[in-house]
Amino acid sequence: MINVFVNDETSPLRAVILGIAKGVGDIPNLDDAYDPKSKEHIEAGTYPKEADMVKEIEAFAKVLEKHGVKVYRPEIIKDYNQIFSRDIGFVIEDKFIKPRILKDRKEEIKGIQYILEQINPDHIVTVPEDVRVEGGDVMLWKDHIFVGYSEKEDFEKYIVSRTNRAGLEFLANEFPNKKVKGFQLNKSDEVAKDNALHLDCCFQPIGENQAIIYKSGFKLEEDYNYLRDYFGEENLIHITRDEMYEMNSNVFSISPKVVVLEENFTRLTGILEEKGYIVEKVPYSEISKMEGLLRCSTLPLERA
Question: Model pTM?
Answer without folding.
Answer: 0.94
